[in-house]
Amino acid sequence: MSERPLLSARGLTKYYGERLGCWDVTFDLHEGEVLAVVGESGSGKSTLLGLLATELAPSAGAVHYRMRDGVVRDLSELTEAERRLLLRTDWGFVRQDAREGLRMGVSAGGNVGERLMAVGARHYGNIRAAASDWLARVEIEAGRIDDTPKSFSGGMRQRLQIARNLVTHPRLVFMDEPTSGLDVSVQARLLDLIRGLVAELGLAVIIVTHDLAVARLLSHRIMVMRRGRVIETGLTDQVLDDPREAYTQLLVSSVLAA
Amino acid sequence: MTTEQPLIALDDVSKSFTLHLRGGLELAVVSDVSLAVAAGECVVLGGPSGAGKSSILKMIYGNYRADRGRILVRDGAEVVDVASAEPRRILALRRDVMGYVSQFLRVIPRVATLDIVANAARESGIGQQEAMERARRLLSLLNVPERLWQLPPSTFSGGEQQRVNIARGLAADRPVLLLDEPTASLDAKNRAVVVDLIHEKKRAGTAILGIFHDEDVREAVADRIEDVTRFASSRAA
Amino acid sequence: MSAAMRDDLPSPGATAGKETDAYNFAYLDEQTKRMIRRAILKAIAIPGYQVPFASREMPMPYGWGTGGVQVTAAVLGPEDVLKVIDQGSDDTTNAVSIRRFFAKTAGVETTTKTRAATVIQTRHRIPEEPLRDGQILVYQVPIPEPLRFLEPRETETRKLHALADYGLMHVKLYEDIARHGHIATTYAYPVEVAGRYVMDPSPTPKFDNPKMDMCAALQLFGAGREKRIYAVPPHTRVRSLDFEDHPFRIQTFKQPCALCGAEGVYLDEVVLDDRGGRMFVCSDTDFCEERRAAGHQGMMVDPGASDPSPEGEGGSRRKARDGWGEARHAARAGKRAAPSDGLRPPPPPYGGGSSDLPSDTAAEKREVVAKDKAGETR
């Protein structure tokens, strides 16, 4: 219980000019923990994700991350090369829109192999073997390895994104509404797959979602955001079953069956 | 020495709900709950429905938050106050120390029944092979037909799902077991099986705190009954 | 048609002195040449790095070598001897036009002999004869950015170069192998220069890639439309990218040149008739002529069987060449030599008659390979 956190956010604040993106967010994330950030659109949850993933620069506050070598680094002090290496080795990012997370004109195998090639893999046979292994793990048929994601369904594209991200065995994966826009049955299968992989690989995950059922199924902890602020945090089942804040109660009561 | 210390100890625990959506209406549930459960002991919470029995179990499990007081759960040499612990400390307690069984099955789709039960055992640190053996034994004892074992339980009847859930809840070896009416609406034969299994757990030294509506089950398993009505909140209407 | 033949240029009938009076030396003004030379110096200092430059309008359309012409204009001196080749040939329209352009605007001596030239402007070939110290090879480049088809954002490709972040280049090669079983990129095959920058060697056949490595001549690349100049200094390592289990290799040809009998050179296919008759001849016309002048003979010195005059006599060789010159052009516009490894042939120079812009055609062909990748990346 005393181990150092994998990621620590302290006082993270982001203004877009006059407009507040998110304000004074502080939390720790440990290895293997799944944190759901929930809230309506405009609540600041995507801004927070962008700050954590170093895609946005904070107006105030800092994010520290314990790198693979055990050294804790202030992410704002990474060089661009270090940042990119981190993003495609120890981190993953599964996006809502697969077209942003995949190369749509590159084959499934090439999509999965890209991270390996980016870190220096130069043996085609090995890259391909790793790609087909990962495609199998995300339940994409072996025969589709040379097809581009253009020919894939929405659910397959999301699974391909997951394979593409996990091939370098990241310790932390960001997910931005990974299941929204999918049919309910496809959602269930994807959630099931994510849940299995997260448990099996001991991944730490920060997942942004407006869907409390997704949060319930995947996450250990929840942060509820409203108007850029974190208004309630706690164990997922605690926040959903015994919500304290008026807004959280409203969110929970608005859901048919979370 | 340490065995004499209770595994669960509640110390002046109070709980109320504030319903913001109904004009901030405050619902007092319980106040100043103090009780303890020792290893090998089965304590049953008594009182009419609405008295807050289930809320007490949920507070111990960390599912509900306590407004005041301490909820002490012993994890080996360490005593953890669930009421103030970090979420990840509570998760660790759930993994290593506390099990919770309700009458409702909530599982992920697509996982086979046998694996659901076996996985529950493995989560508490039991090896794969023994976990499978336990799962088979529990499912047979609870009369879940073997032809269903490889299927996900989502299509099962209510009674079958409930029994899968009990098997799942009892598969693990954890020092503390919280039972929230697991036998509700079970038939007599299966109730008797659950009673036997609870006795088995007690003999193994598990501290059990439970809610049982059936008189016969309560009589059979309870070492003592704590009447929750005495914790009724003074402000309660 | 070609730039140098435009009506608004002075008449070729003027005296040599007048010609250079009419234009500043080598057409461009001195300020422009200085600007380009600065870019060239920077490019030489950072081998393989694409240096932006203020590309000028030239009296020819983009795609006809505006970049190469500007680089040539900036490096050319009055004592230089200029050779211009297009797909290895000295006698195609583009090559003739550019040669005449500089003959007129700079008054420099021109040649078709690789050995005699000090500056060689080329489109899509490197001469077969090894280049020597002191020579400058100027490439016409349609699309200088090797990462372009996978990453459309210029801001991002610049960052990738800055960070030597070249995994993407291998994604392209991976896709080749996945689709074709081997690296099917046969021209514009990406190279790593001096162990640092990845560079597009312009649409030369990959056959020529090894010639770039440790080349004694200075290699300059000019892309007029894209406004980039890059360079490989003499004696610099140029390595073709590949996979450990799919190493880089060049095309080989089953047969020698039908005219001069040369082996181990790059051949063009020439269609002889409409009954499937064809022959393979050196793409490098100067090299081929020199060999024949030295007495080498291929299997088919007189394909039309209409000229019985004995080989080894200059006139008839010239005549033979003239005789099938048209056919050769037509053939170049369509099919190219099919290398024995069955790889995709290099782009035709004039787009099979459908396009007037040779370099654009090359770019289009390249897009066939990389088409799916273009504009679809994140």
From TrEMBL, chain A:
<keyword id="KW-0812">Transmembrane</keyword>
<dbReference type="InterPro" id="IPR027417">
    <property type="entry name" value="P-loop_NTPase"/>
</dbReference>
<feature type="domain" description="ABC transporter">
    <location>
        <begin position="7"/>
        <end position="252"/>
    </location>
</feature>
<keyword id="KW-0472">Membrane</keyword>
<dbReference type="GO" id="GO:0005524">
    <property type="term" value="F:ATP binding"/>
</dbReference>
<comment type="similarity">
    <text>Belongs to the ABC transporter superfamily.</text>
</comment>
<keyword id="KW-0547">Nucleotide-binding</keyword>
<dbReference type="Pfam" id="PF00005">
    <property type="entry name" value="ABC_tran"/>
</dbReference>
<dbReference type="InterPro" id="IPR012700">
    <property type="entry name" value="PhnK"/>
</dbReference>
<dbReference type="GO" id="GO:0019700">
    <property type="term" value="P:organic phosphonate catabolic process"/>
</dbReference>
<dbReference type="GO" id="GO:0016887">
    <property type="term" value="F:ATP hydrolysis activity"/>
</dbReference>
<dbReference type="InterPro" id="IPR017871">
    <property type="entry name" value="ABC_transporter-like_CS"/>
</dbReference>
<keyword id="KW-0067">ATP-binding</keyword>
<feature type="transmembrane region" description="Helical">
    <location>
        <begin position="197"/>
        <end position="219"/>
    </location>
</feature>
<protein>
    <submittedName>
        <fullName>Putative phosphonate transport system ATP-binding protein</fullName>
    </submittedName>
</protein>
From TrEMBL, chain B:
<dbReference type="InterPro" id="IPR027417">
    <property type="entry name" value="P-loop_NTPase"/>
</dbReference>
<comment type="similarity">
    <text>Belongs to the ABC transporter superfamily.</text>
</comment>
<dbReference type="InterPro" id="IPR012701">
    <property type="entry name" value="CP_lyase_PhnL"/>
</dbReference>
<keyword id="KW-0547">Nucleotide-binding</keyword>
<dbReference type="GO" id="GO:0061693">
    <property type="term" value="F:alpha-D-ribose 1-methylphosphonate 5-triphosphate synthase activity"/>
</dbReference>
<dbReference type="Pfam" id="PF00005">
    <property type="entry name" value="ABC_tran"/>
</dbReference>
<keyword id="KW-0808">Transferase</keyword>
<dbReference type="InterPro" id="IPR003593">
    <property type="entry name" value="AAA+_ATPase"/>
</dbReference>
<dbReference type="GO" id="GO:0005524">
    <property type="term" value="F:ATP binding"/>
</dbReference>
<protein>
    <submittedName>
        <fullName>Alpha-D-ribose 1-methylphosphonate 5-triphosphate synthase subunit PhnL</fullName>
        <ecNumber>2.7.8.37</ecNumber>
    </submittedName>
</protein>
<feature type="domain" description="ABC transporter">
    <location>
        <begin position="8"/>
        <end position="236"/>
    </location>
</feature>
<dbReference type="InterPro" id="IPR003439">
    <property type="entry name" value="ABC_transporter-like_ATP-bd"/>
</dbReference>
<dbReference type="GO" id="GO:0016887">
    <property type="term" value="F:ATP hydrolysis activity"/>
</dbReference>
<dbReference type="InterPro" id="IPR017871">
    <property type="entry name" value="ABC_transporter-like_CS"/>
</dbReference>
<keyword id="KW-0067">ATP-binding</keyword>
TrEMBL record, chain C:
<feature type="region of interest" description="Disordered">
    <location>
        <begin position="296"/>
        <end position="378"/>
    </location>
</feature>
<dbReference type="GO" id="GO:0051539">
    <property type="term" value="F:4 iron, 4 sulfur cluster binding"/>
</dbReference>
<keyword id="KW-0456">Lyase</keyword>
<dbReference type="Pfam" id="PF06007">
    <property type="entry name" value="PhnJ"/>
</dbReference>
<protein>
    <submittedName>
        <fullName>Alpha-D-ribose 1-methylphosphonate 5-phosphate C-P lyase</fullName>
        <ecNumber>4.7.1.1</ecNumber>
    </submittedName>
</protein>
<dbReference type="InterPro" id="IPR010306">
    <property type="entry name" value="PhnJ"/>
</dbReference>
<feature type="compositionally biased region" description="Basic and acidic residues">
    <location>
        <begin position="362"/>
        <end position="378"/>
    </location>
</feature>
<dbReference type="GO" id="GO:0098848">
    <property type="term" value="F:alpha-D-ribose 1-methylphosphonate 5-phosphate C-P-lyase activity"/>
</dbReference>
<dbReference type="GO" id="GO:0019700">
    <property type="term" value="P:organic phosphonate catabolic process"/>
</dbReference>
